[in-house]
């Protein structure tokens, strides 16, 4: 019997494209996916649980993990570190679970460098005008910040050639189903099946 390892799927795209919405809807539907829990040095907030919302670490612990190359990616925001622990992801994959990591473009490029076997999915807005509307509807950005986010989005969209798939997020249900189709089809790729099947061929029949 084929014992298949899980696959790491990286969902990425510019700010405001709807990564979080698509990710939440994917997990609302039945699947074998595990969400990649991030690690942080910020203080735990009321109601949060270690190992559920985040893996909470001290700065010293986090910096040691950086030195040991035990993070698939990391960044520092407002004096706190955030990152993706390699061991957690690899344990889930070894147990046969697919893992979904939702992340910004710069973080995805770090993951690609550290875990090239991942499957990278770029989420695209229908247009820059619609992306602008989505950012503005948040009501949290000044005109200057909106312009900066759009300029950054243009740069990030030009990095699409670092990804394996591009999914247009013009309709949430369609985008979710397209991502689910990618997940299913990756398990049927000849090179993945062949790698597992070769182990079966090596076993002597009684």
TrEMBL record:
InterPro entries: GK/Ca_channel_bsu, Guanylate_kin-like_dom, Guanylate_kinase, Guanylate_kinase_CS, P-loop_NTPase. SUPFAM superfamilies: P-loop containing nucleoside triphosphate hydrolases (SSF52540). It is found in: Cytoplasm. Its EC number is 2.7.4.8. ATP binds at residues 13-20. Residues 6-184 form the Guanylate kinase-like domain. It comes from the Bacteria. It catalyses: GMP + ATP = GDP + ADP. It is an enzyme of class 2 (transferase). Keywords: ATP-binding, Cytoplasm, Kinase, Nucleotide-binding, Transferase. Gene3D superfamilies: Guanylate Kinase phosphate binding domain (3.30.63.10), P-loop containing nucleotide triphosphate hydrolases (3.40.50.300). It holds the Pfam family Guanylate_kin. GO terms for molecular function: GMP kinase activity. Belongs to the guanylate kinase family. Essential for recycling GMP and indirectly, cGMP. This is Guanylate kinase. It comes from Tigheibacillus jepli.
């Amino acid at each position: 019997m084929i014992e298949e390892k899980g696959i790491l799927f990286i969902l990425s795209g510019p700010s405001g494209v709807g990564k979080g919405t698509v990710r939440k809807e994917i997990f609302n539907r039945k699947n074998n996916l595990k969400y990649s829990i991030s690690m942080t040095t910020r203080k735990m907030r009321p109601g949060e649980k270690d190992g559920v919302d985040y893996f909470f670490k001290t700065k010293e612990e986090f910096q040691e993990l950086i030195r040991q190359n035990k993070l698939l990616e990391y960044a520092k925001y407002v004096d706190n570190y955030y990152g993706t622990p390699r061991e957690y992801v690899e344990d889930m994959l070894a147990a046969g679970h697919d893992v979904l990591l939702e992340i910004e473009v710069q973080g995805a490029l770090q993951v690609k460098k550290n875990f090239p076997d991942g499957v990278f999915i770029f989420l695209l807005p229908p247009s820059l005008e619609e992306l602008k509307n989505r950012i503005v509807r948040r009501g949290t950005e000044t005109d200057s910040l909106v312009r900066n986010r759009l300029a950054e989005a243009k740069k990030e969209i030009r990095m699409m050639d670092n990804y394996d798939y591009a999914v247009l997020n013009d309709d949430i249900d369609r985008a979710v189903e397209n991502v689910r189709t990618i997940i299913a089809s990756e398990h049927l790729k000849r090179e993945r099946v062949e790698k597992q099947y070769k182990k079966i061929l090596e076993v002597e029949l009684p």
